[in-house]
Amino acid sequence: MGHAASKRIVVIGAGIVGASLAYHLAGKGADVTLIEAGEIACGATGHSFGWINATCAGPDPIALLRSAAISDYRRLESELPSLQVRWTGALSYGAVIDDLSRSSANLLPRAKIFEREPNLKHPPLQALFAAEEGALDPSQATHALIAGAQAFGAKIITQTRVHGFAIRDAQLTGVETATGSIDADTVVIAAGTGTPLLTNLLNASLPIEAAPVILIRYTTQPDLVNGIISNPQLEVRHSADGALLAAEDYLDDTPQNRPEVIALRTAEAIQSELHGVFSIAPQSACVGLKPVTVDGLPIVGYLPNIEGAYVCSIHPGVTLAAIVGRLVSEEIIDGKSAAALNACRPERFLKI
User: Fold this and answer.
1) Residue after which a domain boundary falls, among 247, 273, 290
2) What residue numbers bound the domain in which 253 lies?
3) Contact in structure between 308 and 186 (CB atoms under 8 Å)
4) Which of 269, 290, 311 is the last residue of a domain?
5) Claim to verify: residue 112 and residue 144 sit in the same structural domain
6) Number of structural domains found in the chain
C-alpha cells in the first residue's frame, strides 16, 4: 500500500469507465485526481441503454473480458451498496443464433419465451435467454463509483478541460489545465470520443470514431416487459422508475430521421410488438456518441512512445467498466499485466 499511496494518478474523463478507474485505483491506495471537462456522466454514459451483457456475434477477441464482466459487477454491488443493478435477464432473437456467443445463455422454445415475456405479440419459435444479465442506470452507477472513489480519498474536478501535458525526458509528469497544472506519475486518458484529441498531443494517433446512437425514454404502462428484449424491431427494457427505455441506431441528419421522429416510429413498433401498450409518449430522445475503433475493440494500455501515459477507450463501456477498472488498476499499481487485455493494446495502431 505504501508504494501505491506514493503514486500520483490523473484520470481524464468522468464517464462510467473513468469513474471505475478512479474507484479501483484509489481503492488500491493511489493518490487519484479525476478531471472532467464537463459534468459527471455528461457524455456517452448519460445516453447509454445500460445493458450489461456478454453477447458477441462471431469470433470474440475479448471473450475473457466479457465473460468476467458480470462477476465483476456482482463484486462491485457488494462493495458499493448504492450501485443499483437490475438482474432481470435478457431475451434475444431474430439474429442468427449460432453466431451469438453467449456461454451461459439458454435456448428457449416459444412456450418458455411466452412465460418470460407474456406481452409479446409475436414470440419467435426460439430465443436466447441469458438469466445472469441485467441493466443499470449508467449515470447513477457513475455517481456511485465516484462517491466510492472519494471515500478512498480521490479528488474530483469538473468543468476543467485538459489542454496539454507536461513531459520531461520522455516521461509524462502531469497535465495542464486552464486553472493550472497537476503533477502525476501516470495519466490515464479515458475521455471517450475526446480521447484522440488528447493522444494526438502525445504524438499517438488512435483511430477512434464518434458513433452516434439514440436513447429514447417513454412514459407508458408499467411492467410491459419483465427483462431486456432485443430483436430486429426493438431493444427495450424498463428503468428502475418504470419508464420504458429503447435504444435505436442513428441513421442520418435528415428530417425524417431526427431523434424525435425516430422516437415516434419506435413507439409504433413497440405497440405492434407488445400487448398492453394503451398509450406511449416519448419523454426524451437523446443522441449519444460512443467511442468506437476501426476494428471494434477497446484500446487499453500504456502508450509505447512515452512513459506514464495510459489509454482506456472502451466500447461497450457499460458492460466492461467494472472488469476493466479492476484490471487497469492491477496493471498500473501492481505491475500485473492482464492477458485478457492483450487484444486491446494501443500498439496495434501505432508505429513503434
Assistant:
1) 290
2) 87-132+210-290
3) yes
4) 290
5) no
6) 2
Residue 80 lies in a domain: no
Q: Do 311 and 7 form a contact (C-beta atoms < 8 A)?
A: no
The answer to whether the CB of 278 falls within 8 A of the CB of 221 is yes
pLDDT per position as a tens digit, 142-179: 999 999 999 999 999 999 999 999 999 999 999 999 89
Residue 81 lies in a domain: no
d(CA 14, CA 78): 22
- The CATH number of the domain holding residue 98 is 3.30.9.10
Residues 163, 43 contacting (CB under 8 angstroms): no
Identify the burial level of 57 via C-beta atoms within 10 angstroms of its C-beta, where 0-12 means exposed, 13-18 middle and 19 or more buried. Answer: exposed
d(CA 109, CA 313): 38
User: 15, 45 in Cβ contact below 8 A?
Assistant: yes
Same structural domain, 124 and 8: no
The closest alpha carbon to 300, from 175, 199, 211, 213, belongs to 199
Q: Look at strands 228-230 and 90-92 and give their pairing.
A: parallel
Which residue pairs from 3-6 have beta carbons closer than 8 angstroms and sit at least 24 positions apart in sequence? 3/333, 4/28, 4/29, 4/30, 4/333, 5/29, 5/30, 5/31, 6/31
pLDDT digits (tens, 9 = 90+) for 306-344: 999 999 999 999 999 999 999 999 999 999 999 999 999
Percent of the chain residues topping a pLDDT of 90: 89
